[in-house]
Amino acid sequence: MGISAVIPAYNEEKTVAAVVRTLQPHPQVTEVIVVNDGSEDGTSGAARRAGAHVVDLPQNLGKGAAIMAGARVAGGEILLLLDADLVGLEPAHIDALLAPVLHGTAEMTVGIFAGGRWLTDVAHRLTPFLSGQRAVRKEMLLAAESLKDSRFGLEVSLSRLLGERGCRPVAVPLYNLSHVMKEEKMGFWRGSRARVRMYWEITRCLARSRGQGAGPG
User: Fold this and answer.
1) What is the reported pLDDT for 217?
2) Nearest Cα to Cα of residue 76 among 35, 106, 34, 31
């Protein structure tokens, strides 16, 4: 059973190579795909030099579209979805995310940061459904074409999709793992604006989910 790692990346030149290099030697990962989502820096080249297969999107289409683009070219039956800005990724984290799906005890796992940086740990405890670290069966993800328009609401849309199948994702603690925060990448003001935009897109997806789930009164 093949496993394809899919990494959506927008302006992640500084961190994407380390994520790819951790994935490359893992015995269960059969390919590493980085989807360069219209980056304006050297993300694409950094990922290629690290050994990833890179899919270059012509412009920034958002996280949902990037993951769907990676899923379409993936050869594996299971997709390992990881952020490109992870700090401290280890093989044990990969094992933990994959095991329940490989053993058939879950259709999707959700990785929760624990014991890493205080701010990212708290964010995951408060909103675990927003984690971008997941393992999921490819056929389930590809069945939901609307995910490509979800941008940062991708994780909400994935959870809704699983709920429609009568399942719940399995939470997996990822110890000593974190990511670079937007305010650190872009500076406080630009990063804060980007964070507000991200939460707006997530809120829009949540509202859409509730509207679709509501039956006639």
Assistant:
1) 31
2) 31
User: What gap in Å lies between CA 150 and CA 147, rounded to an integer?
Assistant: 5
- The DSSP bridge partners found for residue 55 are 35
Contact 204, 153 (CB under 8 A): yes
**Residue 160 has what pLDDT?**
72
* Structure tokens, 190: 């630009």
Q: Consecutive sets of 10 residues in the chain, 217 residues long: mean pLDDT of each?
A: 94 96 97 97 98 97 91 97 95 97 92 67 53 90 67 66 74 89 52 52 52 41
Q: For the chain, which domains are there?
A: 3-180 (3.90.550.10)
Between CA 173 and CA 152 the distance in angstroms is 22
Task: Tell me how many degrees the CA angle 152-109-123 measures, rounded to the nearest 5.
Answer: 50
Name which of 53, 64, 75, 88 is nearest 10 in CA terms.
64
Which H/E stretch holds residue 171?
strand 170-175
* Measured distance CA(126)–CA(28) in Å, rounded: 31
Mind spelling out the 3-state secondary structure of 1-39?
A: CCEEEEEEECCCCCCHHHHHHHHCCCCCCCEEEEEEECC
* pLDDT at res. 204: 56
